Amino acid sequence: MKLHLNAFKISLSTNRGPHGVQVYFTDGLNVIRAENTSGKSALLNGILYALGLEALVGKRGVEATKPVLHTGGDYEGQAFNVTESYVDLELSNGDGTPITIRRWIKGDRDGRLVEVIHAPVLTSSSSSQYTTEPYFVGIEGAAQRERGFHQFLAEFLNLELPRVKRSGGHDIPLYMECIFPLMFIEQVRGWSGIQASLRHSFGIRNVAKLAVEYVLRLDVIANEQKRIEIAEEAASLREEWTAIWERLGSLATQAEGNLRGVARSPTTALTDDPWICIATPEKDLTVDDILVELRGGLPAGDPELAYASPGNEELNQQLEACESELLVAQSALSQVRSDIRAEEAELIKLRQREEFVADDIRRNKDIKRLREFGMNSEIQLADNRCPTCSQEIEDTLVPLGSTVMTIEDNIHFLETEKEAISLLIQGGEERLNGLRESMASQSSQVAHLRNLIRDLRSDLLSSMNVSTAAIREHVHLQEKIARIEVLRDEFVTQVEELQALAVRWNANRGRYSELPDDYFSSSDSDKLSALSDSFDSLVNSFGYRSTSSTRLHISRENYRPICDDFEVSFGASASDNIRLIWAYTLGLLLTSLSHNGNHWGLVVFDEPEQQQMRQASSDALYARIAEMADEQFQVIVATSAPAEVTRERLRGIPHKLLEFGDKVIRSLSTS
Questions:
Q1: Nearest C-alpha neighbor of 623 from the set 543, 540, 541, 537
Q2: Distance between terminal CA atoms of the chain?
Q3: What's the CA gap between 610 and 638, in Å, rounded?
Q4: Cβ contacts of 437 within 8 Å, gap of 6 or more
Q5: Selection from 232, 182, 170 nearest residue 207 by Cα
């Protein structure tokens, strides 16, 4: 059992003294019996409110609670007005660890503040001090932020909520509000249909279907997530492959050839060596063939000897000057490259610092929000230990008597720091762009000097017997060889990247092939068959009569009860719709218990005897719950059936009866 309710308490301060109620729950069947309009729903809605799941009744915050908890009511003929109120809910997780949740309804503290007391406050008589932590609920971040209550509760209960896609593309956890309608059937909307209390999709596609898949722990939910991840990775790999293919094609064009041996779409292996085909009248040549031909056009031996000519002092001086200038330019280029690397490293550090400060601002704002909600005690952000060596340290670096910044001052300081870091990043990016432009200019200058030096050397070695055209052709060949060599080297680099991409594509296709051919794994099929069998057995025992029960089964498309391919609730009577909800809710619990599902082990029915339900059907409901009784689950039923009928109905079956008569909320004043 992931969630076990130990006790619940409503505390009201009124003009006629303290009022409220405290109840204790046990494993198995718990029955809350009281007359109509006595406050049963106020009690159950209070439990939802304590859990931060009041959205199930269609409202948020205090408005989701009954007026008796925040406005007033009456007891024994005397009206009272509520001046302050809160609820305490003690619960345990699967390990038996207890906590007590306190949430204020009316008073100085905001209803979005939840206090978690790490102790069994309601069931323990100990008066020792308890550790209390504040959290927020009912606002953005409650399910994902460090101080979000539902984030804490999911971790405490070890719920392992799956990550699902929200409209907009980003991942979020499957919210607890999406799952609890399968376990808590409240009176206002809950009996109008299966998952009727799921009023919002929260931007999640097929949210009702996902909730059932989670409760049963179907492989579908993990497989579908894998499918999405594999498909997203495949799309990214296709984009990378296309980009490399286009770069290779561009290199081939620059080499005056065509790309060969590379598929335009990703492949699991490169069956042929990619190459650039350069067509000639005689045959197709490779880049290496062209380089061999070009080098063959250069003079044999030392080209300076081939173009020997008398020396020229002026040309020698120019050559020496250019060579000195080249050394300076190369040094400058090297320095610019070093400066670029340093600037890039500094920008990485600044961006990391900016992210850290942004997180710090969010944490401080969360704490400020909790204090605004009424949490006056200090929130301990550290445990007086060094996070690196775990040695104890002093809890302050500020000398005693010094003024410590307030939370508002701290937020302002951090925001100022963030703005300063942003300016530093902006300046760094501008400097980096300038350095890159300088590097391009320096590279061009180095290339120019090298060409000039080459020309000067050629002039020094020339003679009247050698034509200028021959010299220029020699230079042209050298430049063409150098250019093609650069293209070849870049081509080889791109091919290596493509080969690595092919390996990643092969791994992606391998993971895809491991997914089950059918949508449902064999385990999923077993679970859905078990759900269908449990549902069929339960709905028969409850006296369902709108259609032949032999035609009822659970749809594999949306996991709802169907008859002849139509959702059965559309053709069922009002009372049979109630029976369907009984059977479906308990069937999910049974299937999860027997097939290692994710059900939290708690089911709540608020007034299940709807629509003048026949007594035999209601008797069967309690009997079937009792048959399930063991320590793995807890069922709470609130009923207004007559006291004598309820006692007779429960005779001989394991249960705990909480009898309240005319009023659940009572005066707690002592005479």
A1: 541
A2: 42
A3: 12
A4: none
A5: 182
pLDDT at 435 over 90: no
Residues 6+ apart with CB under 8 A from 177: 53, 55, 56, 198, 200, 202
The alpha-carbon radius of gyration of the chain (Å, integer) is 38
Q: Which of 147, 144, 181 is nearest to 164 (CA)?
A: 144
pLDDT digits (tens, 9 = 90+) for 578-613: 999 999 999 999 999 999 999 999 999 999 987 678
Between strands 28-34 and 656-661, the pairing is parallel
Mean pLDDT, residues 96-121 taken together: 94
pLDDT mean over 158-162: 92
CA 569 – CA 198 distance, rounded (Å): 17
Query: Tokens 């206090």 label which residue?
Result: 115
Q: Which of 258, 478, 578 is nearest to 470 (CA)?
A: 478
> Crossing angle for the helix pair 615-627 and 643-650, nearest 10 degrees?
40
Q: Helices 522-541 & 207-216, crossing angle to 10 degrees?
A: 100
Q: From residue 467, how far is each of 110, 152, 297, 498 by CA, in Å?
A: 95, 86, 16, 46
Question: Structure pTM?
Answer: 0.74
The answer to whether 10 and 660 have CB atoms below 8 angstroms apart is no
- CB 65 within 8 Å of CB 46: yes
CA–CA separation, 501 and 269 (whole Å): 9
DSSP symbols for 498-544: HHHHHHHHHHHHHHHHHS-SSSS-HHHHHHHHHHHHHHHHHHHHTT-
CB burial readout 229-249, b (16+ within 10 A) else e: ebeebbeebeebbeebbebbe
Return d(Cα 328, Cα 338) in angstroms, integer.
15
pLDDT at 396 over 60: no
Neighbours of 402 (CB within 10 A): 8
- Please check whether residue 135 is in contact with residue 152, taking contact to mean a CB–CB distance below 8 angstroms: yes
Percent of the chain with pLDDT over 70: 86
Alpha carbon distance 542, 549 (integer Å): 11
Query: Which residues are 320's β-sheet partners?
Result: none
DSSP state of 283: -
- Cα 628 from Cα 592, distance rounded (Å): 13
Cα–Cα nearest to 238, from 510, 487, 509, 495: 509
Q: Specify the residue for token string 């089950």.
A: 516
Q: Is 406 exposed, middle or buried (0-12, 13-18, 19+ CB in 10 A)?
A: exposed
pLDDT tens digits along 458-468? 666 655 444 34
Closest CA to 665 of 5, 8, 6: 8
Write the DSSP symbol of residue 458. H
The pair of structure tokens assigned to 198 is 């799921």
